[in-house]
Amino acid sequence: MKKSEPMSESYYYILLCLAKGANHGYGIMQMTKALSQGDVVIGSGTMYGATDNMMKKGWIREIRSDGPGLERRRLYQLTDEGREALRTEIARLRRMLDNAKEV
Amino acid sequence: MAMEYRTSCRAYMVWNYRQEIEDLNRASEQGWQLVRGGCFHSRFVKNPDLRFRYQMDWRNVEDMGRYVETFREQGWEYINSTFNGWHYFRKFYDPALKEEDYEIVTDRESLLAMRRRWSRMLLALGAAVLVYTAVCGVRAVRTPNLPWLLQILLLLAVCVFLLRGGWLMRDPDAGPRGGRGLLRAYFLTLLLGWAAVLVLLHLRPHFVTNSQTEELTEPYVNERWMDFEVYYPDHYYLDLDLSADAPFTFSIVNDAGETVYTVTGTEIHEEHIRLWLGRRWYWFSSSCSGAFELNVRLD
What we know:
Largest sheet of chain B: 6 strands, antiparallel
Largest sheet of chain A: 2 strands, antiparallel
Order of helices and strands of chain B: EHEEEHEEHHHEEEEEE
CATH superfamily of chain A: Winged helix-like DNA-binding domain superfamily/Winged helix DNA-binding domain
Helix content of chain B: 25-40%
Number of domains of chain B: 3
Strand order of the largest sheet of chain A: 1-2
Distance between the termini of chain B: 62 Å
CATH topology of chain A: Arc Repressor Mutant, subunit A
Number of strands of chain B: 12
Number of helices of chain B: 5
Shape of chain A: globular
Number of domains of chain A: 1
Number of helices of chain A: 4
Radius of gyration of chain A: 15 Å
Strand content of chain B: 25-35%
Radius of gyration of chain B: 31 Å
Structural class of chain B: alpha+beta
CATH class of chain A: Mainly Alpha
Shape of chain B: elongated
Oligomer: heterodimer
Helix content of chain A: 55-70%
Distance between the termini of chain A: 28 Å
């Protein structure tokens, strides 16, 4: 990804929700809602499309849960490339915010 | 108790898919629950005790298991998919939820991507039909006749339809609603138009005759042969291939005794001789005094 290319809101929140560990689709959706205080909602279609694209980009990977009661549940995990993409996006957002403060 | 089913043959265009979702929701409120969704017909079962909210998603799914699971996690039940990539889902209606809580595509990027894919497909299809129409147009200019001209008009109507649809899909906020009567009238016109083309083609005299002689016992003088009827006035096309030992006269005569076409010679090889024939009976007439070989094709 180019440094200047902005990430969509859904991509950003999905990566953010995975920053502290693997999570399943519904968990990401719930966490996104909580983090954004209800401002950002990720519907199922958006979720599938975004995770599909991010797996193709190599930002996230799919793993299977081995926790009790969660056998074979799909989880998404951030890759090193995904973590880097998230860092770049946060830096971009921070820069924009700093610019706004300067004005 | 036997289940009560009904089939709806209501067709929707891709840019009207929101209308289809609304209609499915309304049907559910009236007790008709979707069993199988389709592009041209959908099947419902009567169950007034249930109420669902429906959604349709269009995408090329590579991992169906992950796709269905992603929806199931948010309470969506997968119903079925159509051959052209539409997927139907339903969720129990909860009066505490707002309508936007049932949205499955919640970001503009996904919506735009979906509409762009459809737009490209429709515009490409429209362009392909336009090229085919142009090819047919060239043929129609060279050999004009009623069925071909009618077919070109119908193809142009299809082009306009596809290109307009492709254009509408470029705009994420565009969604021509209603107009279902117009759509039905459009399809009915196309259907009747192509039925008319088939009937007109079927009614055209279309035949090939081959005849030859070693020698004539007595000369032919205005010998009548090959009667045929023309059902509608139009341009018709004659191919003549004649070799004769002596001058041969070939004519087409109508039942009013008028000669609509005549030619004399010993070697005639002509194609696509354009004739305007009215609605009448006609026959071929020949005069000849020697051996000949004659091939006639009328279309």
